[in-house]
Amino acid sequence: MKLSWKNLLLWSLPIIIICFFVWQGFFAPTTNENNNNIANSRMTYGRFLEYLDMGWVKKVDIYDNGHTAIVEALGPELGNRVQKIRVELPANATELVNKLKKNNVDLDAHPTKNTIAFWNLVGNLIFPLLLITGLIFLFRRSNNGAGGPGQAMSFGKSKALFQMEAKTGIIFDDVAGIDEAKEEFEEIVTFLKKPEYFTAVGAKIPKGVLLVGPPGTGKTLLAKAIAGEANVPFFSISGSEFVEMFVGVGASRVRDLFKKAKENAPCIIFIDEIDAVGRQRGTGIGGGNDEREQTLNQLLTEMDGFEGNTGIIVIAATNRADILDSALLRPGRFDRQVTVDIPDFKGRLAILTVHAKNKKIHPDVSLNIIARRTPGFSGADLANLLNEAAILTARKRKNSITLNEIDEAIDRIIAGMEGTPLIDSKSKRLIAYHEVGHAIVGTLLQDHENVQKVTLIPRGQAKGLTWFTPSEDQNLISRSQIKARIMGALGGRAAEEIVFGDAEVTTGASNDLQQVTSMARQMVTRFGMSNIGPLSLENEDTNPFLGRGMGNNNEYSDEIAIKIDKQIYYIVQECHKKTLEIIKNNRVIIDKLVDILIEKETIDGQEFRSIISKYTQIPQKN
């Protein structure tokens, strides 16, 4: 709201009125109070009558409707000089006036100003005046389209951010690692700029494009790039902004949004986190949400109902496409679904190149090495990685980012902040055996990933950590690879059992055992890698709050459940037995590695493998 002289006067008027009345009531004394303050001494009414009979009273001023008198008198008690004395008069002193006249006393009556009625009137006017002023202010803000309380009168209006020429500062060249998705949207931008290329062969503009992918992969960034590339009006809104407490408000906002879009067609509508409003209808315990479902119904109608929306392209983003309503995903509404997945090596390298432009990186640092060390990182993770490395560089007062800061940033993102190093004690030695147990089992198994680092420096809740370099392709995993991972997870517990005995086994392997049990159970119930046979006995998508799996959770008989438990126990025991054999056969190497680890606190993967290769042969990894 602009601070004009009208607005200033509108706000200043009630404040000035209140301040004036407060000053009048508290700081402007009446004439009665001024005269009363002159009389410092008091006299009883009986003593006053005695002074009156003796002729010592010279003048009397009556105040407060005959209740108070200021008397000018003299006498021996007053030092034989005239003084002013305050006298409280009784209510029935009717003969006093006659007595004063009889004694020739100068009499003067001062009537009290009646301000009670005035103040009652003022009190009754102040609140309505303030109320009217506030309502005028609210209506003015509502009409101007400003935010704040004034929007209470227009909560059914769309809250979408509208830009005729969306200058986001991001174009397609700034988006890396998702080349396939960029090609899809470059085609849409071309359709908006030059539709005749497509209409000449009978092609129609797609009505909606759904971006699907894990968090941090660049879905919103890609939408900003579309806004920067396409010189068309751009509406952006979050799915949660449609839904309100009142039923029908979300549907009203959808209607208002598409009404504005039709007036500015061709244009783009971007809805971020559409799963907040596009969740499946009628699902969950106790039914669905009426407000959300009405909003979704209105969105479905606007996208592909009886009235077409020519020239409006709806782009939506979500990381939960599995919970979206099927009517929303059909052709005619979202014609295309573009997957924005975790980037591969080339994608990570391209993303690092983009984010490294404004960073001072040492020439010895290779982005190829960073890209190979960060499989599974999303675009947001990689941006955060370089930012954390820059913060560490500034903290150390260095001029450029080195590989040490990169390594520390990777460790911090994966495992958490670095804790206080452990002192040399039995506990530190036990943790060292535990971590070396993980590392040596993973190194000596052909189907296990390579060791990247073994450290005794605490991070997060872990007192020690062993990192393995995950493979690039995590989609297809063989039975031997899963068993190798189970054995690698059991390596820490097995080392404790062999070195310290069963009585000294600690709780440090609790998280490892959870992972072991989960992997073994998935082998049996989901992947068909057990003696039960190639059966999928459990469904991954069992969520009662999405309307799934609301019946019997077990999709198999009790007899099959017993077989599942036996197979899980068999797989874990078999892997545990083999792990114990590896620890026993390499006890000398383990003791040597533990001594080195306690001394250095961190051993990288290459050094770890070179030490082992002096004592035994390391299998070639697949």
Automatic annotation (TrEMBL):
It is an enzyme of class 3 (hydrolase). Zn(2+) binds at residues 434, 438, 512. It comes from Dipterocladia arabiensis. Residues 205-344 form the AAA+ ATPase domain. Acts as a processive, ATP-dependent zinc metallopeptidase. The chain crosses the membrane at residues 7-26, 116-139. Its cofactor is Zn(2+). One of its GO terms (cellular component) is chloroplast thylakoid membrane. InterPro entries: AAA+_ATPase, AAA_lid_3, ATPase_AAA_core, ATPase_AAA_CS, FtsH, P-loop_NTPase, Pept_M41_FtsH_extracell, Peptidase_M41. This is ATP-dependent zinc metalloprotease FtsH. PROSITE patterns: AAA (PS00674).
